[in-house]
Design brief:
This protein is of the alpha/beta class. It has one domain: Flavodoxin domain (Rossmann fold). It has five helices and seven strands. The relative contact order is 0.21.
Amino acid sequence: MLGIGGSLREGSQSERALQIALGGAAETGVRTRLLTGPELVLPFYDAGVPERDERATRLVEAIRQADGLIVVSPGYHGALSGLVKNALDYVEDLREDRRPYLDGRAVGLAAVAYGWQAAVTTLEQLRTITHALRGWATPLGGSINSAETKFDEAGGASDEKTVRTLRLIGRQVAEFAVTRAA
């Protein structure tokens, strides 16, 4: 299970949300891996340039190997972050794979923004991108208003319902992956 997201700020609210969702996946017994912040600082995706730097190669290979993904983006001005969008653009490098793009993989999604409008629109954009990349968006997605919910360093949040939602998203991705593998 691969978690992608967060922001450039270490310990950001969206990174903490991602860690909670990955924790939900880990509760089912699957292995998890987290790629955030500095690991996602990549050259702008360019399909016309076949060479990839080391970080981009690691990201593409991690996605290739993953049976499921969890993507959490901060909402900036009503949209997902450029950091997360650029990382998702690299999924194009999987177009010729046996499992092209995100085909056959569950993708859990959440957006964290300071306000409901940006949280909801960011989640919707993540769903649209997931569908375009042939991924199976989990039935439950998370729109988290960071004006109302604060994540802590201990892996929790001020709103227990948000924690339950994120853990359930992680479990849904893991359960889909395990069921599909069987």
